[in-house]
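Journal club prep, notes for RB
We'll compare a predicted complex against what the paper describes. Inputs for the flavin-adenine dinucleotide case:
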Amino acid sequence: MSFLPSPDQQALVDATRSFVQAEVGPLVADDDRDERFRKELIPRFGEMGLTGVPIPEKWGGLGLGYSEYALVIEEIARVSPAYAIAVAVSGLPQVILARYGSDGQKRRLLPELASGRHLGAFALSEPGSGSDAASLRTTAVRYGDRYVLNGGKMWITHGPYADVIIVMARTGGNGARGISAFVVEGGAKGLSFGRAEDKMGLRSSPTHAMTLEDVEVAADDLVGREGQGFTIAMAALDSGRITIGATAVGLSRAAADAAAAYARTREQFGKAIIDFQGVGFMIADMAIATESAALLVRKAAWLKDQGLPFTQEAAMAKCAATDAAMRVTTDAVQVLGGYGYTREYPVERMMRDAKVMQIVEGTNQIQRLVISRHIARG
Ligand SMILES: Cc1cc2nc3c(=O)[nH]c(=O)nc-3n(C[C@H](O)[C@H](O)[C@H](O)COP(=O)(O)OP(=O)(O)OC[C@H]3O[C@@H](n4cnc5c(N)ncnc54)[C@H](O)[C@@H]3O)c2cc1C
């Protein structure tokens, strides 16, 4: 067992870091203020291979594992959690299609998504069903060789920019078994979006309500079997929790680095504030929380790469890493004092960005539910 990245993994991390620092770093503060998402950056991530890391090479990906994927997402998030989320969310339809899609769907959709020429989205949540996703009400009714979808989705990350959206809709009775997954293409007739939500953080990642009004898709756009949609969604979210954990680790590293750099140079009472135990211990706790979270994320990714069960570990990694990010970013603001509370320094943005990580892809209460149910089963 190695705790260090292999030379190939390190090369991927270094290349990701140089690219993101140069191409995205200078835009982060202004784009956060202006709530601006730049879709044109996604193909640039694609040229680096970063939009399809775990997708097989035959479908246009890098053919690597979640260990590499998590390292890449962590590195992007150190600079921009919003683009880490953009890449990770666009990965959800790819992971779904790679595992459950037909050969035709893979051939048609995966190369464009894995290369970043197309952007993918994932539509499960609705105004009335968030944590209780199995109660969703969007319907898909079959008429011959077509399905017609009707309903309203909520919180769809970069929805209006997406070229391919995996939509969960009800084809059968109540509950999880009545849900199926469909490919809906961006721009489909009857598909519309509300205004971007005015969010506290992650402001360069647009989030929209989505309406489906008699949206027609071909019968071939059903992913997997009728009634398999909830299983597909939960499998995607299991993997997604590793990337949310990795995003949170990247965010924690950035905040801890910013706090340490400031504390080494800021002087009060004639010495650097890092030399006051009250500040130095806060910085030590940031390092402990960040490293612990990184290890849990790496373990969950490793288990997935070995083909071993990883649901519980992914939930632990997501929960621990996002709770750590909230604590670390909040303490980073504290270390910078009044300056930390202004937009002149990046830590206030990091603190706002961290909060949403405890909510998306299953709130941290739901992660604890997943973990406690596993433990209860013995
Ligand atoms: C920025 C952002 C981006 C998102 N992107 C997407 C996306 O791309 N696609 C998508 O489908 N969804 C997306 N979501 C939705 C996200 O997954 C949901 O917000 C989340 O699952 C919680 O659902 P909810 O907001 O309806 O909260 P609710 O489910 O109403 O929960 C409210 C509170 O009750 C708690 N709670 C609920 N049930 C339980 C329980 N059984 N035990 C203990 N506590 C409980 C929750 O933890 C929470 O604290 C996004 C959300 C945000 C904010």
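Talking point for the session: The two ends are 27 Å apart (CA to CA).
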